[in-house]
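User: ok so my PI wants both of these folded by tonight, can you help

Assistant: No problem, let's get them done. Here's the first:
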Amino acid sequence: MTKEAQSDINTPPPVLPNYPKQDLKQGYEPLEGGCTLPNLINKLLKKPLSIVYELEMKNNVGKITCLLLLIATMSFSVFGIVVGTFSWDVQIWAAPLKIIFGLLFSGLICLPSLYIFTCMGGLDAKFSSVSGMLCALMALSGLLLIGFAPVVWLFSVSSTSTTFLGFLLIVLWVICACFGLSLVFRSGHALGMTNPGHFAVWGLIFLLVTLQMTTTLRPIIGSEEKLVNFEEKKFFLSYWSEQMMQER
């Protein structure tokens, strides 16, 4: 046996990098198909982590973020118009405006705490990536709301109960928001999150903020004398209980 062959036998095999195979199966990979509006909608529903990958790699961050916000805005507006058909009149345009502003503003005021909690959770992510994750959460939640829009339309045109429709909208929003929050959890896992408990706390805060916003911008369904009532401050649970008592 030659010396070269002997050295090849004694040489240890090269150490291959330990790629996160589970994350790759979940779609944490480069975005295919280009950064277009239809492709982002498709990836949000099928491989949302590919969008997070592009954000972390700083590939078209500004364009992707703007398109995600556009998807969220269009989705909330369509859902808001369907909600407005319950009362028609001014609510046909006021409801979508309130829903768009309320949800996007809720995301904006929760963004700083999301970045802080990601850092505390052991995630070494860029602020642009965290902002993009939040925009993806809003966009995905909006797309899911559109999926429930026919259900809301059916009850809005066949029911006169404001309390029931309000309860239905809250349940649907919590369901859609939970799917969006699961995307944030998966994104954190793909980026190396070590403590998911911080994300869980933030998710609860985000839900509470969005639910309080429904009371702050009331009425979203039904009609009142004032388009927006900022004078009378109420906690959302207190407001909901009052509405239920009035309809009995």
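One down. Here's the second:
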Amino acid sequence: MRLNELVLVVSSEYSPIPAAAASRVIPWVAELMKLSFKTVVLSSSSVAENEKLVEKSFFPTPSNKAALPIRLIQELLLGFDLGLRIFLKKNKIRLCIITSPPFFMASICAFFARLSGIAYIFDVRDRYPRVLADLEVLKLSSFLGRILQGVETSVYRGAKQVTTVTLGLFEEIKDEFPDVDVRLVRNGFDENIFNKELLGKRKNTSFTVVYHGRLGRFYDHETYLKVIDLVGKLDSEIRFLMIGDLPVEILSYHKPNLQVMPMMSLKDLSVKLASCHLGICLLRDLPAMKSAFPAKVYDYIGAGLPQLVGPEGELSMSISKIGAGVSIKKINPEKIARTIIDLKNNPDQLSAMRDQVILNRKNYGRRKIAQSYFQSIHKIL
């Protein structure tokens, strides 16, 4: 163990929460520990009690279901709590790794790291404040918009390095901030959980389309409901399974072809996914989503699932490139419903797509990606 060389990893979520932030940093922590760094995760009170390497805030993970003003307050409280913990440990910390979103939480933590004279890596999974502009919460040209862009600029330029998850985000940040060291560190599936044995799991008797994760502001739940309703009218043998932290509109939508399950451990989730036939990920048609590649898609790949994705953007292009599914350029519920039925009735096409998923899945292991990244940043560490 390298004494007095503490590395802090700041994340709003950690194990056992099966969410994007947690899934991203878990293998990072594992690699840091392999390098013999004393590693502590600063996270929310939502994390399990028995996680020995986690120091928990007094405040929970900000809720995606909360109204935006409430969500802002939640982020600020969590950010200042975790930021003060960074400040109090300043004489022991070698490096701080901060993943965002939540943007306000992460930015506050970056401010405290700079105030404490601590080097930090700032990890960007969604580009704020541009996402807020896409959601029409604010205009970038407004006074508040300019302030938040200034915060973003300050955070990036104060970082030893900025990491991000997709090629689109990497190119955006690199073009706008040429003086910043930007690295592309993709997400992936957890090889320890999504193992090769899953690929031989027996499929459900009924053709099953699965969605998992949070159905937040980047997704239009009405699209999913329309697709489920249309498919039910055209082919009653097809089933939909939705797993995760879902809005009330989904939870209260009682249809015989829809099963809803709560968020579960990644281990249990991997088994559920592997028993399905097709993964689905339909994003809202927003500029920010053009460079999105949701973590759930990697889980589908890990489970050996072909998938139906859209609209046009980096996600759809990536899936099309490796032949791992069907990409819909424009979100059209009628077309999506017909596509699902066609795939169910064409098992040879579906099998060919699955073969491509299995052929390419070796390139998407999250721990392999993390290992490659941390081996490349010895100068920072």
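The chain has two domains: 2-188+365-375, 196-363. The mean pLDDT is 92. Good luck tonight!
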